[in-house]
Fold this protein.
Amino acid sequence: MTSPSTFAPVAGRLFVGGEWLAPRDDFASRNPANLDEVVGTFPQATEAEVASAVDAARAAFPAWRRTSRILRAEAFDRLAQLVKRDTDALATLMARECGKNLTECRAEVIEGLHMIQYVFGVGRTGVYGEVVASEIAEKDAFTRRKPWGVVAVVTPWNFPFAVPLWMLGPSLLEGNTCVFKPSEETPAIAQRLVELFVEAGFPKGTVNLVQGSGPVGEALVKNPAVNVVCFTGSYAVGERIQQVSATIPNRIVAAEMGGKNAVIVCDDARFDLAVNAGILSAFKTTGQRCVSASRIIVHESLIDRYARAFVEQAARLRFGDPLDASNFAGPLVNRKGVEKVLSYNALAKKEGVKVLADGGELGGKGCFLSPFIYQANASAGTRVTHEEVFGPHVALIPFKSDEEAAAIYNDTEYGLSMAVITESYRKMRFFRDECDYGMGYVNLPSIGAEVHLPFGGVKKSGNGHPAPRALVDAVTHRTAFTVNHGTDIKMAQGLATAIDGAPA
Ligand code: NAD
């Protein structure tokens, strides 16, 4: 589906303590739209290399922490200019490496840029600390945030530019130094991002890059000199990281994980908007967003009409070359992703759902799949309507009452995102309050992020640090700082201050 590549393969390197190590070709990153195309070859970092990256970050920490917060923020201003200069090249590399359509990749680069701009902006304002009252008039009291030290940033393949910036940005701004372990599916775009950090002038050791698969991430997470792990990815890996981290004193983990999201279509919904919202939620990024909806919960009065329109629209979607911006979406990220979705399609049939569109492989050299759509009953307790599939696999589920719709929505172990399509402010408010989610949308698809808003979830979807503002809580600790302007010592709560115990 793609023409032979004219791009030279990237020679992958690790970046440790301000030095690019010699390239190695331990593993290849391939274009999922054409598996013959090698985007680059990369080193799988050894345990010793991971340890030296952590040591380099630790060594760089004191000087970076002492650097003015505003100067740290200004480094992000330089980074913003470079991302603007390279937007198209970054989007193209991303499209070739992870298979997302060029328009989505461009939007992701812009989202990364917005995060950089946000970080630059809050450098001069925001959340650094507060002046608070003291019980003693002569005292000034402050709360101040201080960085923890070394932050490990472990990221998924599906947002390989913006998600690392969500975590690297606030961590570095607050004075931490970082070791970045990107997904093994997207090492080239990660390397390019780190090259831009270097060009922007971030000092040696503040940003380090280790590449490779799960064991590299695990070696990083097991390193006791890492203070904070910022993780985004699947629940299985997030759970493992939290378990490993529980054995390390004072380890902080911020984990953003998977979802089993839904669009709820009420009986008063604008019909065309509801169909469009469902299609975008289910199939944008080929269903591989953390917020993708694999459940469309539809009022019973609309279900037959909705199912017909939804299947018809889905049949018109073009899944093809990510570099052709006119395609709706691209391939799955790899063969493993294809096998996983196909196994869930087969499971759905085994579980007795009513198949409306029997999706399957589209052939060729890429990982392309067509949509699999079915109708399921909430009462059947099927696995396919409860587990994250991460592909073009979607259930339409009828409901009778709003209470039932909220109960169906909540009946998963996840709680990431929810969209409701309604014209009624009462219904909107009901679902806003009754559903468990981190991101709620009204008359919108269950996709979309703006960097100044929280982005995270509850239950198995996240542990409460939705980037970027709340992430500051994870990457800093609060200190109290009290200054006496009097000439003698007075204590709060009437505590005696004379040496002999009598009040002074
Ligand atoms: P993944 O969990 O397989 O991998 C994520 C990262 O963890 C990769 O860098 C991987 O190498 C690393 N890793 C694997 N095993 C490890 C271990 N034992 N210790 C440390 N690190 C380890 O996820 P993925 O397939 O790259 O991404 C898809 C998942 O991410 C989906 O579940 C999706 O919902 C989720 N996601 C969530 C959000 C969010 O904000 N909530 C955003 C994007 C993606």
Observations:
- The longest strand covers residues 34-42.
- The longest helix spans residues 102-122.
